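Hi team,

Below is the intake form for Exocyst complex component Sec8 from Charadrius vociferus. Please confirm the fields before the structure is written into the shared record.

FORM ID: S-0412
PROTEIN: Exocyst complex component Sec8
ORGANISM: Charadrius vociferus
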Amino acid sequence: KMAAGEAAGRYRSTMSKSKDPSGLLISVIRTLSTSDDVEDRETEKGRLEEAYEKCDRDLDELIVQHYTELTTAIRTYQSITERITNSRNKIKQVKENLLSCKMLLHCKRDELRKLWIEGIEHKHVLNLLDEIENIKQVPQKLEQCMASKHYLNATDMLVSAVDSLEGPLLQVEGLSDLRLELHSKKMNMHLVLIDELHRHLYIKSTNRVGQRNKEKGRISSLVKDASPVPLMDVTNLSTPRKFLETSQFSTPGSSSMRETSLLEIKEDMELDPEENSTVFMGILIKGLAKLKKIPETVKAIQERLEQELKQIVKRSTTQVADNGYQRGENLSQENQPR
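The structure came back. Fields below:
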């Protein structure tokens, strides 16, 4: 009984000090476990039931007093609960829609990538078709350029066409005949350029000197000057060596001809390509360089040097003899045997 009394005292003190339900429950359990007498337990049980009944009465009184506020709170709570439920459903629907949009965007992205790749392929095919169309016209254009002696343009066109046919268009079987034809022309193109170079080096240059002396002789005969024919002046004659030397070692006060370098030479399609022999020889050398035939050109010049010089001597001798014979005829007609 003393133990039960102490437990009841602890219970009351706990209830008065603490309003935490868990603390009360723990206190009751401790009291029941420490009491050995059944009567004490029944007493404790009665106290608890009385306390619960008092709580129910107090709760009923509070509900009666605050019925309106409680009803409003319950309705508000229900409304909030419904709104939260609706919001959750809407969010769920939005998530589903977003997932669906994401899948559709993935599909569209793949489709767009496929269309983009197809566009690039079609553009490449169109470029190849344009290139094939241009290359098919190369033989005709090449023939026209060769006929008009615009060799630099012809060389550029031929080299570019052969590079395309042996590069991006190598797998096009329909161009095999054209490929062989242009390749053969490229292999023999340098022979034509070398012949033109020799013609200007040895024939055109000496023809200019001879023509100049013919004009001088004609003028002297018109003024009845019996002085001997002047010697050929070849010091001012333009040659590729002089051309390169003056272009490399030009001074600020030099002429425009001397300021031109071989790399800056361009071919004018409107003018006669042989009008300026020095520029024409520069064009020939540039074309041979693009054909990568400079070693063959040097070899051909070395092999034909002696023969060409002999031909110059032969032509000059014949020309001097003809001029002398004509001058003698003119003097004899004027009764001047001297």
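SUMMARY LINE: The CA atoms of residues 54 and 295 lie 124 Å apart.

Thanks, M.
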